[in-house]
Amino acid sequence: MTDIHQLLERYFQHLSLERGLSDNTIKSYRQDLNHFVDWLVGQQLGTKNSLQKTEDSLQYQGASANGSNTEHGSDLPSAIRYLISDKPITNMDTATIESYVSTLSVKHHYSQPTIARRLSGVRNFYRYLLEENLVDAVDFLEIRPPKPAIRLPKVLTIAETERLLTVYAQASDVASIRNRALLEFMYASGARASEVADLQVGDIDYEQKLVTLTGKGNKTRLVPLGSVAVLATQNYLTQSRPALGAKGVGITNFFLNKRGRKLSRQSIWEIIQNAADKSKLQKHISPHVLRHSFASHLLQGGADIRIVQELLGHVSIATTQIYTHIANETLREVYFSSHPRAKKVCEKFGYAVFAL
What we know:
Elements: H1 4-18, H2 23-66, H3 78-83, H4 94-107, H5 112-131, H6 158-165, H7 174-189, H8 193-197, E1 204-205, E2 210-214, E3 220-224, H9 227-239, H10 241-245, H11 265-279, H12 287-300, H13 305-312, H14 317-320, H15 322-338
Helix pairs in contact: 1-2, 2-5, 7-9, 7-12, 12-15
């Protein structure tokens, strides 16, 4: 039987070479599947230790009754002998998976989205084994965790976004010019942090005001850039990047760090956090918050959801539809805070109700 870790490595190579998934996506798969295998091995060891004690007890009882030592395992039921043997990890059943899901929920208190992600990773791995004829049958592929409640992404209001984007407006040092260009670019394009880190100098077409982004699975998409982002990035190219790039010869990444090298995702996160602190926004702001705000503000402005899907690089429209909930909630808040009849309340029945 092939070692489970060898099977995992074959699967990760399949994800990279055949499916073209990014290193970051494969890293997430690796973490989730390693967690599952570690749990599974622990379960098997616990079962074997427990059954070994049963075997020893039965042997002791047999020896006491017969006055002699019984040959190892000869009087054990066949089921017990099977369970304390090296049962292949690839022999998986529904009960085991349900136990794993229960452990994630009850013991580790993971959220439903996290459980769903980990179960999806395990399911995809065993589906691969089935397709490669490495297992005979897998009866748990259709198991689904309880459907999680809708969790709306965190977004900034348009006013909060303006505060964030203008933090470096008056600064003239090379780092501040870069940081302003970075913030304007991320909000204008809805790009992921990894896409910004991998952005190349030639990816922005200033004549057409378009940028080519390379997303998950090395898929590219064209996204328009607004005038402010165009001016901010052009200013960075002429006033800041030459100074930063002087220390890093031959680096073609668009955004550079102070050593002239590619700006990392961690550095992008830190720049956004520092900008949030300077703007005194009492919110936790990450690169994805800017991406969420980009999508939400487009929908609030009347953009078609299919267009937003293309701009974000979502494969499924269902992923994009979460932003419609945000837009609807914003419309509701605006309505009840602005409509003259919606703000009136009636105290007739002892509690506030909106007047019709």
